[in-house]
Specification:
The complex is a heterotrimer of chains A (203), B (228) and C (393). By secondary structure, chain B is α/β, with parallel strands linked by helices. In chain B, strand 6 and strand 7 form a beta hairpin. The termini of chain B are far apart. Chain C is 50% helix and 12% strand. A three-stranded antiparallel β-sheet of chain C has the order 1-2-3. The longest helix of chain C is centred in the middle third of the chain and has 32 residues. The chains are: A alpha+beta (203), B alpha/beta (228), C mainly alpha (393). Chains in contact: A-B, A-C, B-C. Chains B and C meet through strand 3 and helix 3 of B and helix 4, helix 9, strand 6, strand 7 and strand 8 of C.
């Protein structure tokens, strides 16, 4: 019969229409911004800098090695390296970035900066409601706006943050063991030198 | 499928006068190419498409490459006659020295064609053609009359590199607008500094645009405003 | 009068496929020259067609594009190989994972790099998901332009959302995935992700059945699409057409079967072919390809082995392939997507060329549209399935 295909199609649409009142699966609209879907854990939007202790400046993991600046495809990261060294979260003397700007109007969220950072200092955020009406600087995030604590990182990417913390703890343990081994060897060497000194030479 | 040597032999047998040269590809991909002189290119193309064994009926990709002029320094042995003192007597002696000479290897534009066969399901066969130089002798024969798929791709190479394809049915710019003057993909292309830009923190772009704007304002004095 | 002009046009079409633009003979009245686009809801992006119309019939059609030209090839000459990978996402922006795979394949051909088995399976799974969501969107948009006001499109998008959620869980981004690397994939898939993927695949056959119920038997669709925009197989081969457009004309050429790239040899799947080469055949080929993709997905999700997803010796930074060149191609959802790379030993490619399927498929747009009505032009153009990001790069 002519029109059979159209009627079959309409039956399909009717099934969805009626079904949207009774089954959750057929009602797919989410009324944003009153309703929000939970963010997927791995989602990435723009980068942020991780800091470890309560002091955001001293605790920054970034040591201004500028590898992310070199590898960034659209060249949206601008870093100025410091001339002096300051102690970082664990007390080691490190360089630090005096300027670390990311132009998020240019950033394409590719995550290559995160991949190449050797110090786990830059990670991807998932905040996307960043629209601003200041077009001449509102989208240029500086060091202070980018720095967020490690606890925030655990909040947005729990699995990843836990893995990063485990990796950092392992590296720290290895570095400590190596330092201890070197200290023990130095102490043993000093003791040997002392023992080998002839009697009466220290008068 | 035939190897590059066999294809070269087949072309030379079928189209007498065709000059074909093998260009080896050092990478592990093993895709060696055949360099074709532009003279008999259309006949060779016809042979490649209509041959029963090769049956290259599918032209997949046409690429333009720019090889700019290269200045190379090479050591040349120069024999000169000089006055030299030998055993206290001044006489003319021939001596040979190594001299470093600079030479400019002229550049050219190159067009690379990748062929496959839909009938025989083999490929790729890679063909190259080079222009004489990059400045005034940039013509190459168009393969569009043989394979229609070259139509837009050759137009793009004309647009972005400046290779003029003789015999192309409709040679005009493809991606850039019709009034555009330069050829953007060339290695020596200088982009204009009067982009409409958004002031971002790209210091170099900002400085250049500010300088350009200042130069523009000093060139045309402030006499063009409303009410003048 | 109009029958004579149609016969005249058809005769011109038969004459050969390299004829100059056809102008109606004198005394037929004035031609209306109109530009369709670039701001047009039905042109799939910023694309212009300069039409010359005799009443409603198309007498000449010249496509004009370049509005989205972002000079991807020149940018790639100035950044490293890895840094070009996120830019390939933005070529065919609906199918970012297949673009990534094509580029990774070309670089792996250039360097002779081997890819671990698990990575190959992941690549196939993601590519087939991409193919399904691309074909669903393409059909959805085609039907939308026919006047269906978005209902089939939203059906397709409902399913597409599930696939995009899978992509987001794995790669971090719904569309610009940046996931393949030279020598494997960026991160490994978890068992939970594979479970979720199996659930999505289990729901797909019902979705395609619903979709077909809505569309394939629909009389309006059949009346508008059958016999419209016929593309002869000889012209298709000569014009370098690839993908569902070629197979809709009956030519059996699927790069997955011809080149045996990746591990496609291990999967049993069929290649659907059309008989007439019209818009309806291309639509049916896309539906059937979606079903074949489900077959491949089922096999791949069952057989995926363990192991690493990246060659541990593969370099991320400081990657300098030796001088040489390579052309690598895959069967992208739109056709043959190829990358041609020339390396001079440095960290950046010397020449980086993208062979876009959408650009080459547009070569025969005029041939297919001559003699049809303007309304059919919209349909024929929709059945070519182009994305301007790829056409213009």
């Amino acid at each position: 019969m002519l029109g059979e295909g159209i009627l079959k199609g309409m039956a399909e649409t009717a099934r969805n229409f009626v079904g949207s009142f009774v089954s959750k699966e057929r009602l797919t609209t989410v009324e944003y911004p009153e309703e929000r879907i939970a963010a997927i854990e791995n989602a990435r939007v723009f980068p942020f800098l991780v800091y470890d202790t309560a002091d955001w400046e001293a605790g920054l993991r970034c040591v201004a090695c500028q590898i992310c600046e070199k590898e960034c495809p659209p060249k949206c990261i601008f870093i100025d390296k410091s001339k002096d060294k300051k102690p970082d979260a664990i007390g080691k003397q490190q360089f630090y970035p005096t300027r670390f700007d990311i132009d998020i109007s240019v950033c394409m969220s590719c995550q290559i900066c995160v991949e190449v950072c050797p110090f786990e200092a830059i990670k991807m955020d998932n905040e996307f409601e960043l629209a601003t009406d200041d077009r001449f600087g509102g989208l240029l995030l500086d060091r202070k706006q980018l720095a967020k604590p490690n606890e925030y990182y655990h909040q947005i990417h729990p699995t990843e943050a836990a893995a990063v913390d485990a990796r950092l703890a392992e590296e720290k343990a290895k570095a400590d063991a190596k330092a201890k081994g070197a200290a023990d060897a130095a102490a043993a060497k000093a003791a040997a030198v002392l023992a080998a000194k002839p009697e009466g030479a220290g008068d | 499928m035939k190897t590059v040597e066999e294809i070269k032999a087949a072309i030379e047998a079928a189209v007498p006068g065709a000059v074909v040269e093998i260009v080896l590809n050092p990478s592990p991909s093993g895709q060696h190419s055949l360099r074709l002189a532009p003279g008999h290119a259309v006949e060779v193309a016809q042979f490649l498409r209509d041959d029963a064994e090769l049956a290259l009926d599918f032209l997949s990709n046409v690429t333009g490459v720019d090889w700019p002029d290269k200045e190379i320094t090479e050591k040349v042995k120069v024999t000169r006659t000089v006055m030299k003192t030998v055993d206290g007597v001044e006489q003319q002696v021939e001596e040979t020295v190594d001299e470093a000479r600079k030479r400019v290897v002229p550049g050219y534009l190159e067009v690379v064609y990748h062929f496959f066969s839909m009938a025989k399901k083999h490929g790729p066969v890679v063909l190259r053609m080079r222009t004489v130089n990059r400045t005034d002798q940039v013509e190459l024969p168009s393969l569009t009359p043989i394979w229609r798929s070259a139509e837009f791709q050759e137009r793009e190479i004309f647009d972005l590199y400046g290779v003029v394809f003789t015999g192309h049915p409709d040679l005009r710019r493809l991606l850039m607008w019709d009034g555009f003057k330069d050829h953007p993909m060339r290695r020596d292309y200088v982009d204009p500094d009067d982009y409409e830009y958004e002031p971002t923190a790209h210091d170099a772009v900002l400085a250049r645009a500010a300088a350009h704007k200042a130069a523009q304002q000093s060139a045309s004095p402030e006499g063009t405003g409303v009410g003048q | 009068m109009t029958t004579t002009s149609t016969a005249f046009l058809r005769e011109k079409m038969e004459e050969g496929w390299n004829r100059p633009p056809v102008i109606a003979p004198e005394g037929e009245g004035e031609l209306l020259e109109i530009a369709m686009g670039p701001h047009h809801p039905s042109t799939h992006g910023v694309f212009r067609m300069d039409l010359a119309l005799d009443g409603e019939r198309v007498v000449r059609l010249k496509p004009v594009f370049g509005y989205l030209h972002r000079n991807h090839e020149k940018i790639a000459e100035q950044i490293s190989y890895l840094a070009s990978m996120p830019y390939t996402d933005r070529l065919d922006y609906i199918c970012s994972l297949t673009n990534n795979w094509a580029y990774a394949l070309a670089v792996e051909k250039l360097t002779g790099q081997e890819v671990p088995e698990r990575a190959e399976y992941i690549r196939v799974i993601l590519a087939e998901f991409t193919r399904i969501q691309n074909h669903a969107s393409a059909i959805g948009f085609l039907i939308q332009e026919m006047g269906a006001s978005g209902t089939p499109l939203m059906y397709a998008f409902k399913e597409r959302e599930k696939i995009l959620d899978l992509f987001e869980t794995l790669t971090g981004s719904r569309m610009m995935c940046n996931y393949m690397r030279f020598g494997g994939c960026r991160v490994d898939v978890s068992a939970a992700w594979l479970e979720e993927a199996r659930k999505v695949v289990a729901g797909l056959p019902r979705f395609i059945d619903e979709f077909e119920n809505l569309l394939s038997g629909n009389e309006i669709l059949m009346a508008r699409c059958q016999g419209v925009g016929i593309l002869r197989p000889e012209l298709a081969v000569n014009a370098g057409i690839t993908g569902p457009m070629l197979r809709g004309s009956g030519v059996n050429y699927d790069i997955r079967k011809v080149d045996h790239y990746g591990i496609y040899d291990r999967f049993k799947f069929r290649v659907p072919l059309g008989d007439h080469g019209d818009v309806y055949d291309r639509y049916m080929v896309r539906i059937l390809e979606m079903r074949e993709s489900i077959t491949i997905l089922n096999q791949a999700l069952k057989e995926i082995p363990g192991g690493p997803v990246m060659d541990p010796k593969a370099k991320i930074r400081g990657f300098r392939p030796k001088p040489g060149e390579a052309y690598g191609r895959i069967e992208a959802p739109k056709g043959e997507l190829g990358f041609y790379l020339i390396s001079d030993g440095g960290p950046n490619p010397y020449r980086y060329r993208v062979r876009p399927p959408s650009l080459v498929n547009l070569t025969v747009l005029e041939d297919m549209c001559l003699g049809s009505d303007v309304a059919d032009v919209v349909l024929i153009f929709g059945s070519v399935d182009i994305v301007l990001g790829e056409v213009d790069r």
